[in-house]
Every structure is written in C-alpha cells, then in structure tokens.
C-alpha cells in the first residue's frame, strides 16, 4: 500500500513508525512526549495522527525531518505511538492531518 496525499486538504495516508532519538532533532529540540518527524511540514506545525486500525488519534508537534524509509509518512515519539496503540507492532497505517492555528 502506497502513500497518498490530498492536495486540497493536505492530508497524508500511509505508514507511521516511532522513534526515540537521543540528542537533538533537526529543529534543535529534543524528541518530546508528543512530537514527530515529517519530510516537508514546517517545524512547529501541529498535526492530528489517527491510527486507521483502531481510530485512536493524537496531536503531535513536528520538530524533526523524516521518515527516511519508503512508504512512511510520519515518525512519532514513543509515547505518541503508545497512545495510538501501535508501539508493540512498530508501524501502523495512519492518516495525518495538519491542524490550523
């Protein structure tokens, strides 16, 4: 299953993974409880990530670049993966929706 993006709504559907980076992210911050990595969204952007299998969602703040594995649309912190219910699986099919400030 590939990655899809909607030009009108700027939402992405694809795989999410999680990470627990030691040290600083691309923005100079640290991985927080509810942070994430996206290839193109500006640092500080807030997005709602919804696990399409169980419909759990969480809002994360983008503070890093990635993911760099094909077919993945976002990396989230380990705590966000716990909330979404996929940490033990490692990856999940998700929808990512930017939240307007």
From TrEMBL:
InterPro entries assigned to the protein according to its UniProt record, in alphabetical order: RlpA, RlpA-like_DPBB, RlpA-like_sf, RplA
Protein's UniProt keywords contain Lyase: yes
SUPFAM superfamilies named among the record's database cross-references: Barwin-like endoglucanases
Enzyme Commission code(s) on record: 4.2.2.-
UniProt keyword terms in alphabetical order: Cell wall biogenesis/degradation, Lyase
Tagged with keyword Cell wall biogenesis/degradation: yes
Family statement drawn from the similarity comment of this UniProt entry: Belongs to the RlpA family.
Protein name: Endolytic peptidoglycan transglycosylase RlpA
Annotated organism of origin: Methylocystis borbori
